[in-house]
Amino acid sequence: MPPTLRLYNTLTRTKEDFVPVDAANVRMYVCGPTVYDYAHIGNARPVIVFDVLYRLLRHLYGADHVTYARNLTDVDDKINARAARDFPGLPLNEAIAKVTEATTAQFHADIAALGCLPPDEEPRATDHIGQMQAIIHRLIARGVAYVAEEHVLFHVPAVAHLRAAPKYGALARRPLDEMIAGARVDVAPYKRDPMDFVLWKPSRDGIDPGWLWPNGAPEGITRPGRPGWHIECSAMSMAKLLEPFGGGLACDDPQKNVFDIHGGGIDLVFPHHENEIAQSCCAFGGADGSGRMANYWMHNGFLQVEGEKMSKSLGNFVTINELLETETFGGRKWPGEVLRLAMLKTHYRQPIDWTVKALEEAEKKLERYRGLIKNFGSDRPANPSAIVVQRLSDDLNTPSALAEIDAIARRANGVVGSLSDDEIRSLNSATAIEAQTAAANELRATLLFLGIDIDAEPEGAVNLLFEREVETKIAARLDARRVKNFAESDRIRDELAAMGIALKDGKDPASGEPTTSWEVKR
Ligand code: AMP
Ligand code: ZN
To answer: Is residue 405 domain-shared with residue 429, that is, in the same domain?
Structure first.
């Protein structure tokens, strides 16, 4: 029986048993990067955290039964500004494409180095403008959005008039005045209510990319425009996690218009995720707006650097690429698996302090694991530790999982912690070696399960592993012969013969003890 997965749900502020809508189609959406610049190490945190969850879900439900979508936000004012700055001679759309393509390629390279699997779906906002427009039409039709001065705005107070719609603020749980204060940052004269947010806005000629409405624009929209940020995620999650499974705008069953997990950094809770819920529930949550878009809302804590908030002005802003490829942080480059291990040392909901010291510790640990696997492991396949899977199933408790990995490492090192000296003496040498090899193999498989490929096979290592396996078997055969269990010793000799190994028995000239040498048969 696999362990029950429990996840902390920001929506209910409790740890809950995870019950998928459909165990044959587990679905997770995570807000991805805005592609205008190198991703910083804080951006790497949600990518790594939800990669661990993705691996765990695949383990628990089967790789073919999980769909993970992580979007690319490729429409944004920051992209437009970067395009104008870096490619002033190019037409706008070409310049934008250059920025988003280069940044996306860099992002992919960075996170691959951090051991992250590609998601099943990686929608780009610009490929889903049509769906955003369709959702906007639906919201207007349902009376929760309106047109004003070439904008379409979501009217927050209108949600209250839909009978079953989740209350605005249900996720963020902020007092109304705080939400209003937050929204006031960009209070525009055309807003009916200060909390109203933008679904669509007009494009400035030559500055912003702009889209027309091929299927008809809402009344009052006459110029090309572009989407607001929040609607992008409602449209992309619908396109990738609802429509292919029978949900979406064409479906009026609110039960079909909900997916399982929605994730991102804690800064996205308000307003981004609150607004996504409002839009999605009002557009396809049933005519009364019922539903909750996703059942489990998960948020990673923030990363700071050497005790301070990371910011360009403080000079402690560090990109994934700088850590991997340059000597910016701590005066040296860092391997991706060291960065990943350091990230997983802290539970995902806690703030993490990114320090040179923590990276050095992670590196030391990995070197030790690597040595143990190289010296004691074999190439026999092994399963990841069931205890580690269990620890991860408790709301991704990576610190506890890593403590268990240390215990496996101690076993691989021959430290049989829970046994008495007598018990250890009574273990014969073959059993001890076998246990050590099994622990080393389990260590490798478990690290791999966490996305850390220890790469213990530099040149020639495969032979070393093979030798190790042969010698373990020979020791077991000698043990069997010592207790006159010849059936067993013959069985092992045949097993070795099948591996192409010929044995030669002899005696140690000094001690008189039986010995066995071996060679590969030609
Ligand atoms: P952005 O490109 O700013 O929208 O961020 C992409 C993702 O990185 C979002 O899920 C953010 O919540 C997350 N994020 C941004 N900064 C940090 C940070 N310092 N620590 C942890 N997560 C962050
Ligand atoms: Zn989003």
So the answer is: yes
Q: If you average pLDDT over residues 24-42, what whole number do you get? A: 97
The answer on pLDDT for 122 being more than 80 is yes
pLDDT at 206 over 50: yes
Ligand 1 atom with the shortest distance to the CA of 31 = 10
Ligand closest to CA 266: 1
For the segment 296-319, the average pLDDT, to the nearest whole number, is 93
Shared domain for 433 and 379, answered yes or no, is: yes
Please choose, from the candidates 371, 361, 369, the residue with its C-alpha nearest in 3D space to the C-alpha of residue 330: 361
Q: Does residue 236 form part of some domain?
A: no
- Pair (433, 506) in one structural domain: no
Are 450 and 486 contained in the same domain? no
CA of 264 to the centre of ligand 1 (A): 7
For residue 39, give the ligand 1 atom closest to its CA: 2
Atom 22 of ligand 1, nearest CA residue: 42
> Using 50, 70 and 90 to split pLDDT, how confident is the model at 461?
very low
Query: Cα(262) to centroid of ligand 2, in Å?
Result: 9
For a ligand 1 pocket test, name from 40, 43, 306 the mutation site with the most ligand atoms within 8 angstroms of its C-beta.
43
The span from the CA of 424 to the CA of 347, in Å, is: 36
Q: Would 65 be classed as within a structural domain?
A: no
Give yes or no: residues 443 and 397 share one domain: yes
Task: Provide the domain count of the chain.
Answer: 2
Question: Among 267, 298, 303, which residue has the most ligand 1 atoms within 8 Å of its CB, making it the best to mutate?
Answer: 267
> With contact defined as beta carbons under 8 Å apart, do 197 and 228 qualify?
yes
pLDDT at site 295: 96
Rounded Cα gap, residues 392 and 388, in angstroms: 6
Indicate which atom in ligand 1 lies nearest the CA of residue 301.
21
* 334 vs 167, more confident: 334
Which atom of ligand 1 is the closest one to the Cα of 264? 10
- pLDDT grade for 464, boundaries at 50, 70 and 90: low
Please tell me whether residues 448 and 472 are part of one structural domain.
no
Question: Distance between CA 469 and CA 438 in Å, rounded?
Answer: 11
- Determine the average pLDDT of the residues in 248-261: 91
Residue 474 lies in a domain: yes
Domain boundary among 431, 456, 481: 456
- Whole-number Å distance, alpha carbon 60 to ligand 1 midpoint, is 28
Tell me, yes or no, whether 68 lies in a domain: no
| Contact yes or no for 301/266 (Cβ under 8 A) | yes
Q: Does residue 2 surpass a pLDDT of 80? A: no
Give percent of the chain with pLDDT exceeding 90.
73
Angle at 305 between CA 302 and CA 311, to 5 degrees: 80
Residues 6+ apart with CB under 8 A from 102: none
**335 closest CA partner among 320, 348, 350:** 320
Q: Residues with Cβ within 6 A of ligand 1?
A: 31, 33-34, 42-43, 45-46, 264-265, 267-268, 300, 302-303, 310
Pick from 409, 434, 456: which residue ends a domain? 456
446 with 468, same domain: the answer is no
The residue segments making up the domain with residue 509 are 464-520
Q: How do residues 336-383 score in pLDDT, each as one tens digit?
A: 999 999 999 999 999 999 999 999 999 999 999 999 999 999 989 999
